[in-house]
Amino acid sequence: MLDKNGIAKRIAQEVQDGYYVNLGIGIPTLVANFVREDIDVEFQSENGVLGMGPFPFAGEEDADIINAGKQTITTLPGASFFDSALSFGMIRGKHVDLTILGAMEVSQNGDIANWKIPGKMVKGMGGAMDLVASAEQIIVAMMHTNREGESKLLKQCTLPLTGVGCVKKIVTNLAVLEITPDGFLLLERAPGISVAEIKAATDGKLIVNGTVPEMKLA
Amino acid sequence: MIRKTVANVKEALAGVQDGMTFMLGGFGLCGIPENVIAQLVALGVKDITCISNNAGVDDFGLGLLLQKRQIKKMISSYVGENDEFERQMLSGELEVELTPQGTLAEKCRAAQGGFPAFFTPAGYGTEVAEGKETREFNGKMYVLEEAYKADFAFVKAWKGDEAGNLIFKGTARNFNPAMCGAATITVAEVEELLPVGSLDPNQVHIPGIFVQRIFQGETYEKRIEQRTVRQRN
């Protein structure tokens, strides 16, 4: 089974040379740490920066330079700042190649829910609805089950939706899956995890075609 | 040159009344109009509607207005860092309209640029689209969103001149530019107010035509919400 860094490491393999990438808060943020160093990738943060760098050294934080998680950051050579309307123009206009975000639930037809639990938690959708409605390539990074042990990969989402039919790929602590017209297609198993274990943790329809390889994380 | 300078925050807020709708720039606590917020608290205006991406934290930013129960309605995209906000929302004291972030920015820009409404794919098929017109373009579904109407837009810039021209710094730019000229009166507070001729016209982000009043903020705390650093090897 993978930990959060393991999930991020696996997703980093999906990032290709020349990609502009938007990373959501949580596990997606960790992806930046594992992207190959021999490719050119720029990270976009929807609050208005392209070309995000690592966190600043202590004492060099600038209150005016933060990411969408409100964390202090730095910029890399070639970076740019812009306003929120232009930032979402980049997103809505499909100029961002890859969006990686977390989720509370994903359904087998690619619906995603990640912004509200009625009566319990209402933090808002932030930029997630804009991102999922427009991105060509969306990867969801999440645990396969919630804290109660219930599957987060469902036939139908039970929580208020963030977007419909938009998720293409999911990387969890147990597996890599692709959304297909027939359901969740199992592409890879996490190290040491069996198909039966993934099946047991998946509430939606799981499609298993032949032998499913184990992820390569080296 | 048409002068936009006012002496201080008190003059800048002349005409502010109970029940008005305000736009406030900022993302989290980054690039918020700190001096205006402090003065709105001092004035004690009530029943206000605030259009702002976030609602501050408990003891800073718009959280200060929430503490005093001055806000009737919040229009935001993300309100996660404020316990008092959550309490007022769940108890029904505070009306909340959650809007996708890109839609929020565009509803400001539409008001600035004279569009009554626009179609966006964001929120289609979700509760955000309930009661709104939807339409198909090139095989994809879109939601009709209307421009905001506001009495005042309060923005914060890094540098400005007496003509109201503005330059923003870093990610403190965020929602500020789209809000300029998107309300009846736009008030800009700046860290540095300069004489005309000091700003290179090539570098101006927002031309003074969008700004009615400009003043130099007295102090800036610029509080950092999440201080994240790395260690030197």
Biggest interface pair, residues each? Answer: A-B, 53 and 59 residues
Round the Cα radius of gyration of chain B to an integer and report it.
18 Å
Name the assembly state.
heterodimer
As residue ranges, the low-confidence spans of chain B are none
Secondary structure category of chain B: alpha/beta
Mean pLDDT of chain B: 97
**Principal-axis shape of chain B:** globular
Series of H and E elements of chain B: HEHEHEHEHEEEEEHEE
Note the main sheet of chain B: 8 strands, mixed
Main β-sheet of chain A: number of strands, strand sense, barrel status? 10 strands, mixed
Radius of gyration over C-alpha positions of chain A, nearest whole angstrom: 17 Å
Q: What do you see in this structure?
A:
The complex is a heterodimer of chains A (218) and B (233). By secondary structure, chain A is α/β, with parallel strands linked by helices. Chain A contains five helices and 15 strands. Chain A has helices at 4-12, 27-30, 84-92, 128-134, 195-200; strands at residues 20-23, 42-45, 49-52, 75-81, 98-101, 105-107, 112-113, 116-117, 121-122, 138-141, 153-154, 169-171, 175-180, 183-189, 206-207. In chain A, α2 (27-30) links the parallel β1 and β2. The longest helix of chain A is centred in the first third of the chain and has 9 residues, at 4-12. Chain B is an alpha/beta fold. Chain B has six helices and eleven strands. In chain B, strands 1, 2, 3, 4, 8, 9, 10 and 11 form an eight-stranded mixed β-sheet that branches. In chain B, a hairpin with a 4-residue loop joins β8 and β9 (166-167). The radius of gyration of chain B is 18 Å and the shape is globular. The model of chain B has no long low-confidence stretch (mean pLDDT 97). The chains are: A alpha/beta (218), B alpha/beta (233).
Keywords:
heterodimer, A: alpha/beta, 10-stranded mixed β-sheet, B: alpha/beta, 3-stranded antiparallel β-sheet, 11 strands
